[in-house]
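Notes continue from the previous slide.

Worked example: a multi-chain complex. Inputs as given:
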Amino acid sequence: MDPRLITAVIVVVGVPAVLVGYIVATEQLLRLAPERVKPRIRPWLWLLPAFAFLFVFLVYPTIRTFIYSLQNSAGTEWVGLRNYFWFFGSSGALDALLNNVIWVVLLTGLVLGFGVLIAVLVDRVRYESVAKSVIFLPLAISGTAASVIWLFMFSYQPPGVAQTGTLNAIVTSVGVAPVTYLQTSAFRFNTIMLIIVMAWMWTGFGMVIISAALKGINPELLEAARVDGASEWQVFRRITFPLLGPTLAVVSTTVTITALKAFDIVYVMTNGAYNTNVIANEMWQEMFNFGNFAHGSAVAIVLMVAIIPVMAFNIQRFRAQEAIR
Amino acid sequence: MATVTFDHVWKRYSGDVVAVQDLNLDIRDEEFLVLVGPSGCGKTTSLRMIAGLEEVTDGTLKIGERVVNDLAPKDRDVAMVFQSYALYPHMSVRDNLSFGLKLRKVPKPEIERRVQEAAKILDLGALLDRKPKQLSGGQRQRVALGRAIVREPAVFLMDEPLSNLDAKLRAQTRAQILRLHQRLATTFVYVTHDQIEAMTMGSRIAVMSAGLLQQVGPPQELYDHPINKFVAGFIGSPAMNFIEMTASRSDGKVQLTSQDFTFPVPDRLRESVAALSGNTVTVGIRPEHLELGEAKPGDATLRATTDVVEYLGDEEQIHLRAGETEIIALVNSSARVRPGDVLELRVPIDRVHMFDDQSGLSLTSRELAAA
């Protein structure tokens, strides 16, 4: 038998068995505890495996990364903040940082804009669930696959040669010269093209969440506004949009984090060439192309620190939402 | 100030669902018209057609002299109070009140004046800066009323505005709305499923059932002369007793008989009952018209056994049973009826209603209309 199959069976059967064994064992042990403290101990014992995983796979690596970022690339001596000085002094890294800012602004704008637009529109069509499924579908595709699809879309052949890329086929059919979508870095054109790919994937996410929020608005509110004298646009701007506020905040923070972490699309489509690099790809290149774990770790920490405020805002927003309910 | 006219108005939904059938109704200027009926009877749909929230499928709907079939809600000069109040949750009470005026570009001092006035009428002064979430149900209800008042519309529309209030607050608000109607002297159209609300508030009541308008008239008229069995059973509390009896004529004497009772037929109904000889006639007796005590000549009597007694203070509501028939009587509580008592109830035959069992139409009202 294929040894990989055996491994798979062991994992599928073994891991749950260990967890069940753990729970049975702790429940047995709990019997020994006094009745009064049982309810206080039990939840912690059940949570312990989750905490253990979290520590081993998240907390510990984070600490290790931080330590690496303060050492030289061989990990043999402490260098203080030198790796961070390198980051903020390197034009390549700063360029990636600037691209990430563009990613955050544009991706969030596109996902929110199209998300709201499509959510409002599908609310009024008969085949709403079908339309929503189709628009949501790209999110189910892996970033790599989406990138491959869009490489075909953006594909460029020199003028005179048959254009195999969809967009250039359209462009040349109306007599315009083919466009180098991924190589034109003026005004960050190529970065914008990459962001469009990500927006294509994530619009469905925004749309689904905003659509749910839209359905949560009491229709009598909109009717009241109409009777009060509001046009359809005023109903949207004065009633619907403000009531969507908390939802839009949640979507935009989620998308902001996604934009900050952007990696797969850039890696597959341009690998950071022509000024399209982003922080996550910079980190990858430092670590695995140049083997400089110190630089890579510093980039990773910068990325994490950038995400923390957004995350904090998100959690606070979530708590506020919970408090309203 | 305006009239509202339904002229052969129909409302059909896709799939041949008819919500309102051939509605003809003239709502007069400054009147308090109550649309009442069980749920699904088309009353709310009719109201929403006035507001412009439902399209008129067929027929003509006019507010004043203007045909409004194709007019957007915002251009109809109506204000509506919703069942859920529909206060804008993200706006303060003040902004809720002034929203419609701002949209209509009413000058600021005028908005302020109207808001202050509405706040005074409805006692909202201290609440103007609060959000709807911080208000009690009764306060929200008042804000909803206030939002309609400040608009100074031609017609007020109210869709079950009291159904979310507790009994005491409901009675208070009922009076408040009536006072408001007197003060504003504007047309009110009020939808409710509660016939007590309809009776106490309406200057006229329109009873609807299954998409059809059954009868329109002042409360007294509906109570005294219901046009059919549905209106008779719907208006009045407790509901009218119905007894199915067979009409018969033998040697010149017309009478109604059932397994348990025999009723003489008053002279005024002789002809119409005689014509139904051999058929079923439904006799309707209001619980409050039944009296304890011996029959006078010419009256009918019911003999029945007391099942349950509900003490209401001044009165007692007695549930009785005679054979297959269940009867409710409302009598003075000094009688002190006890469960199990066998009672002789006098039926004042002049106040009895009779309905053709086939059509449900009242023989009594028909007689009256002919006279």
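Summary box: The domain at 86-146+184-324 of chain A is CATH 1.10.3720.10 (MetI-like fold). Chain A touches chain B through 18 residues (CB under 8 Å).
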